[in-house]
Structure formats: C-alpha cells, structure tokens
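Progress against Task 2.4 (sequence-to-structure conversion) is shown through the following example record, which the project officer requested during the mid-term review.
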Amino acid sequence: MASEGGETVNLDTLSAQQLTQVKQQLDQELEHLTSSFAQLQSAQSKFRDCLRCVQGGKSPALQENKPILVPLTNSLYVSGTLSSASHVLVDVGTGFYVEKNIKSAAEFYENKMTEVGGNIKELEVIVQGKTNNVRVIEQGTYTSYNPLTPRATFAWANSMSSN
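Structure tokens generated for the chain above:
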C-alpha cells in the first residue's frame, strides 16, 4: 500500500514491540480523525438546518413588526418583534454576524454545506487508509509471532498534518 505524502515501512524490519507502538500511534490518529469526521458531519447537519430555516423563512406568516419567539437554545426562547422579513443575521463564525437577504443567506449555507461535504469526503479517504494500515499492522503483529508467515509492507500515511 502506498499513499501520497507517506513513507513505506517493511513490517519485516520491525520488532513486535515496534509494531505495537506503531499500532498504538495509528489507533490514536484514527480516534482523532474519527472525532473530526463526526464534528464535520455535525457541522454539515447544522448548516443544513440553517438552510432549511432560511428557506422556510419565506412563509407569508412572517410579517414585519409581528411578535415572534426567538430561539436562544433548543429549549429556550425569548419574545421579539420581526423587524424585517426579507433579511436575516447569519453567523459567519467566531461570534460574527452579518445581515444578509434570504437568497444570499441560502447561498452562504449551500456553499458551507458543499465545502464541509468535500472535507468529509477527503477525511473519509484518510480514515479508510488509516483503518487499512491498522489491519495490516494487526496482521503484522500476528505474523511476528509466527515466523513461517510472510509479513506485509504498508504505507505509513502521515496525514495528521493536513488537519
């Protein structure tokens, strides 16, 4: 197995202890990458929810100067008055909000979903590669105790720097 930006390691040259250390490092990297993968999926879901809300905001029931409930959390709301039915405040990150019209806000969230979706696909490939490397290491650890079994070579993909 070879991959971009990685080095190839012959498992025959590693002792059982070294194989165990490499497996532990791969497991840690895989745990971190899996956590990042879940966070990206969560972010994409939130952007999807925001897009639905923005698109659902075109309802004729939303009228200017009409009292509404504004969600602070999933279970906490405050009363307010709708000042503009054609504009929304968009959280662009790190606590900054930008006023956008409905169409522009929808485009913003669609672009964010596309960007995060691309990152998810890239990370999925990396996670699959790391998972394959763990399997090869586990197989190498098994064969290190059985001298009659040939050992494999695997690609050591150092993809942690891309996070």
